[in-house]
Amino acid sequence: MRIGELSRRTGVPVPTIKYYVREGLLPPGELTSPNQASYGESHERRLRLIRALLDVGGMKVAEIADVLTAIDDRDRPLHKVLGAAADRLGADHDDQADDADTDGASRTARAVVADLVTRRGWRTHESNPAAADLTKALAAMDRLGHSAFTDVLDDYADAAEQVARADLAYVDREVAVEDMVEAVVIGTVLGEAVFNALRRLAHVDASAKRYGTQGQPGTPG
Amino acid sequence: MRIGELSRRTGVPVPTIKYYVREGLLPPGELTSPNQASYGESHERRLRLIRALLDVGGMKVAEIADVLTAIDDRDRPLHKVLGAAADRLGADHDDQADDADTDGASRTARAVVADLVTRRGWRTHESNPAAADLTKALAAMDRLGHSAFTDVLDDYADAAEQVARADLAYVDREVAVEDMVEAVVIGTVLGEAVFNALRRLAHVDASAKRYGTQGQPGTPG
DNA sequence: GCTATCTGATAGTGCCACTATCTATGATGG
DNA sequence: CCATCATAGATAGTGGCACTATCAGATAGC
């Protein structure tokens, strides 16, 4: 198909598709003449993936480019890509926490994280960005006077393990080997959005049941 | 204290503090003379909250302004604020899903969500933004060929309920009534970041245990 | 008095995800 | 074969966002 049809099918404007190609998110179409290119199913599928990671996953274009490069790299063994891909899918990584990294809250949080990982027997490296994110979040909690939140960390970790098991089981059960890497990326990123939404629904329900009311239906506007 | 000390204590630049005041995130200091204002403990605490919601929670300045206004509104009954506050803390709400909202994937997703809410007996209104987010995420899954992901939704929901229960228990146990609203906001937003990080750690661990390896330590850079 | 700091205001910056416009070329149809 | 349309590729511009720079005028504290 040509770029116009690709655009129509996916709802992505033609200039945006060209932009994605420029940024390396989408391979260029196969040139059939100097100014004609044809796009296939794989382009359509990739485009939908890009929009999902952008719109639902909230990832940045540059991050998506990295992840897609990893997905397309079929040289490295599957399990290594799984690990690397899962590693890269963090929040915004600034790496600018140089001075804030040495205050009391950060040191406490780091200890809490190290302790948790040990207690859980988690096979994860300290350099995993997720560990840094966790430290950052717990340090912020601490600074806001909620250091006691660490008491519920194990409840959170139980739930996280349950979700991770469900993800792995899904991938094992439903996904062909050739699509596994992509499925893990989708599951990690979109699964996060799914869980966050479920958590907020459960939150409203739990507080409704406790306080005997239900969430405001009206968003006035 | 004056604005300079507030800046030094929190690490937030003076012009940025002024910007937050302009945007309504932070109440202005109490004027002691036409060009001198004094800031108190509450300003420092509020400023830390703002930075946490921004840096860790990834919220936008305008969203934070809304939430803080709700926190400061002491007129409405506590449980209503809890519901409203929890409602507002979603992802980026675009409301522009008008045409994409009527395709097959979206309709399927909406049915799945309605079914889930009924099955769970969740007391939540359909207009809850979280429900829309969930629908959006599931529709994206569907379009990517992962409609079977709905099979693990109940595992996710179990985990979400567990997390919600832990949150409520924490607030009940640790937080004074006057700080409850703020604590719920913190718990919802920062707790999300905490859980997402834990989920990624658990993910790496689970795949490490299954595939007998551990995540790449090296992020080459 | 003198200098550092402050308030309040306006304008500018850098990043990001597009989006508009242009040229030259080829596709398509009567 | 010629008018019209779509396309590739390139460059520049847009709008949103979170700041950040600069300034004028006033005050603090020595």
Automatic annotation (TrEMBL), chains A, B:
Residues 1-70 form the HTH merR-type domain. Keywords: DNA-binding. This is MerR family transcriptional regulator. The keyword Cell cycle does not apply. It comes from the Bacteria. InterPro entries: DNA-bd_dom_put_sf, MerR-type_HTH_dom, MerR_fam. SMART domains: HTH_MERR (SM00422). The lineage of its organism: Bacteria, Bacillati, Actinomycetota, Actinomycetes, Kitasatosporales. It comes from Streptomyces lancefieldiae.
